[in-house]
Design brief:
By secondary structure, this protein is an alpha+beta fold. It has a domain of about 120 residues: endopeptidase fold (from Nostoc punctiforme) (Alpha-Beta Complex), CATH 3.90.1720.10. The protein has five helices and eight strands. A hairpin with a 2-residue loop joins strand 5 and strand 6. Helix 3 packs across helix 4.
């Protein structure tokens, strides 16, 4: 036995011939396959080029981020501006509507005040005309007022004069059913108002008025007597005898308050209350 027999060898063990042959065969098969594929490829096939993806740099990312932040800030600022303008427009519209409402209320108030003042002025004017007509009628009435009746020569004095003057002052006023003045009357409304001038309260309707006082004949009338048409307890129309064969009454809507002769529409009878 040699002296080196116990030292192991550092050489790699040789591969077996079978293993080498197997590997050679595999390699050959692979190269053959590559060769066949190359031969089968079209002659004019373009060579495959490599595509290189360019990755964004850090500087470009910072620029994009700054641009996005700036755009967002501008959008927020524009939205805030739009909201502010919308709020201002709404406030302006509300103020304009409020001012218009206030102006309309003021105009309506002035119109009502002017209307009321005009009505008061017209009322004062009517009262003045009525007073003038009453005074004129009272002062112009005299003993010369005579007619066919035997009592016509009597002068209206005191309460009768006030009644006659008031009745004549309403000549020309309108006839309105149920009217009690001051510018429109029905027949009994006028008689009632005339007698109120003498401090006498009469019933409202003609049938009740003709039932008051004492019955007198048409030949013995005195100024202030009440004339009636129909029966005494069921008269449908009344008027006031003013002397001189004349009477004043609220006749109908077409004539209004008129002064007429007894011959124009002869009454059925008369009553004396004074």
């Amino acid at each position: 036995m040699s002296q080196t027999a116990h030292i192991p060898s550092h050489r790699k063990p040789r591969r077996g011939a079978s293993k080498l042959a197997f590997r050679a065969g595999v390699a050959g098969g692979v190269f053959s396959t590559i060769a066949v594929a190359g031969a089968a490829a079209p002659a004019n096939a373009e060579p495959v080029t490599e595509t290189t993806l360019e990755m964004p740099t850090l500087g470009s990312l910072d620029a994009d981020l700054a641009s996005a932040v700036s755009a967002s800030a501008e959008a927020s600022q524009q939205e805030a501006l739009d909201q502010s303008l919308a709020a201002q427009e709404k406030a302006a519209l509300e103020k304009a509507a409020k001012d218009a409402k206030k102006a309309k209320a003021e105009a309506d108030r002035k119109a009502e005040a002017e209307k009321a003042e005009k009505a008061r002025a017209e009322a004062r004017e009517r009262a003045s005309r009525t007073s003038e007509r009453t005074s004129l009628s009272a002062s112009s009435y005299s003993a010369s007022d005579s007619g066919s009746s035997s009592g016509d020569t009597q002068v209206a004095t005191g309460s009768a004069a006030a009644i006659v003057a008031f009745a004549r002052a309403q000549v020309g006023d309108a006839y309105v059913s149920g009217g009690t003045g001051p510018n429109s009357w029905d027949c009994s409304g006028l008689v009632q108002a005339a007698y109120r001038q003498a401090g006498i309260d009469l019933p409202r309707v003609s049938s009740s008025q003709s039932s008051m006082g004492t019955s007198v004949s048409l030949s013995n009338l005195q100024p202030g007597d009440i004339l009636y048409w129909g029966s005494r307890s069921g008269s449908y129309h009344v008027a006031i005898y003013v002397g001189g064969g004349m009477y004043v009454g609220a006749q109908n809507p077409s004539t209004g308050v008129v002064e007429r002769s007894l011959d124009w529409d002869t009454p059925s009878g008369a009553v004396r209350i004074l």
